[in-house]
Input
Amino acid sequence: MKKVTNNALPELLAPAGSMETFHAAIQAGANAVYLGLDQFNARIRAKNFTVATLSYLIPFAHKQGIKVYITLNTVIKQQELSPLLDLLYQLEQLGVDGLIIQDTGLLHLAQQHFPGVPLHASTQMNIHNSLGVKTAKKLGLSRVILSRELSLQEISTIRSQNPSMELELFIHGALCYSISGLCLASSYLGGFSGNRGRCTQVCRRRFYSSQGSGFYFSPRDFWAIEAIQKYKELGIASLKIEGRMRGAQYVYSVVKAYRHLLDHPESITNVKEELLNDFGRPKSSFFLQGMRVDRIIDAVNPAGTGNLLGTVKSCGPKQLTIETETEIFTNDKIRIHSQDGLEGQSLTVLEIAQTKKAIQLQVNKQPEARKGDRVYLTARKKGSPLQKYPKKLPGKPIYFKKNYPHTKRVLNKFLQRKNSKKAYEKVYLRINNLNWIPLVKNIPCDGLIIQCHHPMLQQITNQPRIFSKNSQNIMLALPPYIAEHDLPQWKKAIASLIHNRYNSWMCGQLGQLALFSRKQQLYADASIWCTNRSTQEFLFSKEFSHFYYSPEDDILNLKATSHTSGFITLFGFVPLFISKIKPVVKLNDCIQDNRHCSFFAQKFDNLYYLLGEKPLCLTHRRDKLKALGISHFVLDLSFCPPRKKTLKTVLSHYNNKSKIPETTLVNHKGGLQ
Output
């Protein structure tokens, strides 16, 4: 194991969700900024930028030695490939310093047609161990943004095994309850996919259970201030601050603090004090020191961004009366937080009047608030060191052509490869509990998919013929997250099972390719998102024989991407959150949100899953899907208690092509946004 040491300062990478925050980041001492456009970007609600603006912004930044990275970190639907090709063509001409990407179809197109553009693996790609980093390098990615869930020890190990790969780490900002890239909660509850930049922040809501109510899935903000010196010693390439939805004052103060810490490591105590007043949430070091779950979630209090001022006493025409002990000034920015925990309306304070027990504020628009709602201070104009930024960037823009001349040829290639085989209907059962085996072993089906954890692999190893006389009908599915310290035991168990002729494996993350040779038949699981034909071609080129359609996909996109090698779930519980954070509610307890949607949490393979009470059901859509050329159907019994009645119900509705009561179509008909 090679030891990595480095005395050079890492790049300080700042968010820019608007022109003002772009200038704030540069003023504060950032070495690079990352920003999104009005499409293909995981923060679509930020102000963002246009390509025309970038044509001025990039040369302006480069003259000052500032790098500019563009976030294209969403999954791409088939109809979006044409505008995506035009956008990649434009960005190549502008000389961007890197694209931060999630979709492997985008990776495939960029490498084939725009090879000069550096590609960075977004944290949405869920790269969390040394195998993932090695695979990313093999795929041609120049930098990996590692998952936030890692400990300092895991980061050190990953770095030592990948000394030549650029690694980027988040050091400050918001946390998601779910592992990045594995959240379907927003999509399940309305079609607004977090994987497509339209997250509705389900994890910030108030939930209700037998224990009462609370903000069960709302993490504090992350800071890695104690680890900065260690990151420098490890030679981490880039330290990233989250916050493209935050204001300029937040960006300036946080970037300025970390700039000072990097240049003056002895100032850590003072910097800590500054960052505690960054207008963010209370702070947590997350899992940096190991699997400590304390101080990650405060279920009692809504975790609003900003400093808590107080509560709403009453509202009037453009008027808000609040109870507070904090001094407020004109032009301060405040935000209302509903009692359900959701971040609501932002307001600017115009005038202030003191009453006997409260402060009356004149604000710039009619407040959308109720008595008892919380009010947070999100920015303070008085004493702000921010300078006025220019409305127009100086200098000349880079000239660029808008339309990629080869789009039609590229897309026609995918259409020509639409389906090479006739669609023969096949049905597979999927389980994650070996107690299902006695119930399903005599059910006629084309294969059994077993979602595995390590003890399950051990059990299969010890009883190699536990399932059937023919292990070729078994597909063993790996979890989407295998921690670095667990890799040795997984490698050993997988090698033993391959020796026992278990040769069909389903990968939950691209890095798991490194665990197998070409002798094994490999399948891409649903956690390897596949929503366009370019991704299909990429997966086939990496020795995957089949892929999985996303449970959040819709019928129109399925029609546009239909392929006989695609698996689709006709029945199954949809994992809304997949997390390493232990929930503060009882497992299997009924949980509800304020809209009376019901959920339950389960633990599987050291991960915690939040599942909707209503499973996905498309059994009544069999014929329509088969007519499209989709014919590999999965009945997923994972997270269902092993019962004959459940099996009988699912099989009966599958055979009768009828919909099971109390189920959901997710986005199948409503559309994936």
User: Anything to note?
Assistant: The chain has four domains: 11-175+219-284, 188-217+575-614, 307-379, 420-572+616-656. Residues 188-217+575-614 form one domain. The chain is about 25% helix and 25% strand. The two ends are 45 Å apart (CA to CA).
